[in-house]
Amino acid sequence: MSETPPEIADIMRVSSHREVYEPCDDSFALVDALLTDQTNLINHKPNICMEIGCGSGYVITSLILLLKSKLSNIHYLATDTNPLAAKVTTETLEAHGLKADVICTDIASCLETRLAGLVDVMVVNPPYVPTPEYEVGMEGIASSWAGGENGRSVIDRMLPVVDRLLSEKGWFYLVTLSCNYPSEICLMMRKRGFAWRILVQRSTEEENLIILKFWRDGEEVERLEEETISDEFSRSLSLFMRKQ
Amino acid sequence: MRLITHNMLSCNIKGVTNGFPLKIEAEKVIEKEVDFNPDFLKHMFAKIEWKALVEAARAMGYGELPEDSPDVAVIESADETFLKKLHHALLEIHLEEGALVCPETGRKFPVNKGIPNMLLHEDEV
């Protein structure tokens, strides 16, 4: 019997460092969301895929593996603000026999001009933990989780960057917690012309994780009532939870 | 880091207006073969800043690219000589050790183990 090629990163081969966030429930939920969407991703035929905040490299490695057998020559980019995380990511990729271009930068700041409109798939597991504002932007492992007020400080800075980098057909996968007010995030993205969908909802002992997918739906949005999106969000969430 | 990525990188120090392209100082370059995919190259060709790629490839020791950007007929032609060169320059040469230098300020961004460190100092943001 032939062995089926692995479709996601092997946890035993993920490199680590005490100052780098290890794959945890949120990383697994994000990879599960990508697996759920695997067929769509393959049919999407992306040219450039990118992860902002690659940490241990578990997610970008999984993304490469789950597209690899079907699509060749996708250009993969990963960034992290923590130099140790960038290094650990390349080690994780190497341990899986893969290579991607990893850059140490704040969000995507050195890529914003030239990469604008070119990214077909963007994946982000942001620092979403609500913390005092002064913890945001600290060095080392704190940069992987410290999210400021409602865990939104970094997420809110990322959204315009993601909008700028995504191509016309670009898709965006984002990890959020229910305490991040994800319906507000959907509203902000709606105003930028994006539609959204819940891909995974998962409650762990500590957090209630929601993985969202966004895509441009081509509609100009002039006026939006906050309540409308908020209602829509609650409806899809309860619908989603009933299906599980 | 490969040259396809280098072609997308700029120096974003506050106030810098010409932060592209970053000049490459190569100390160690490695080559790694990857599958040739003409469609991908044709797609990317439109997005590439040609002069920047030619100079970057030269800095990495690869001087086979034509000085002037070839026109679309060359890209679409059945003869894949040019596409093969483009493929090699964009996807197969990696800058492992060295630095990227901002064309305007001369600020050096180190590249170690293939990772460019583009983080800015506090007074540069």
TrEMBL record, chain A:
PROSITE patterns: N6_MTASE. It holds the Pfam family MTS. It comes from the Eukaryota. The keyword Lyase does not apply. GO terms for biological process: methylation. Transmembrane segments: none annotated. GO terms for molecular function: S-adenosylmethionine-dependent methyltransferase activity. GO terms for cellular component: nucleus. Residues 46-130 form the Methyltransferase small domain. Keywords: Methyltransferase, Nucleus, S-adenosyl-L-methionine, Transferase. It is found in: Nucleus. SUPFAM superfamilies: S-adenosyl-L-methionine-dependent methyltransferases (SSF53335). Belongs to the eukaryotic/archaeal PrmC-related family. PANTHER family: METHYLTRANSFERASE N6AMT1. NCBIfam families: hemK_rel_arch. This is Methyltransferase small domain-containing protein. It comes from Eruca vesicaria subsp. sativa. The lineage of its organism: Eukaryota, Viridiplantae, Streptophyta, Embryophyta, Tracheophyta.
Automatic annotation (TrEMBL), chain B:
It comes from the Eukaryota. It holds the Pfam family Trm112p. Gene3D superfamilies: 2.20.25.10. Interacts with TRM9. PANTHER family: MULTIFUNCTIONAL METHYLTRANSFERASE SUBUNIT TRM112-LIKE PROTEIN, UPF0315 PROTEIN-RELATED. Belongs to the TRM112 family. This is Uncharacterized protein.
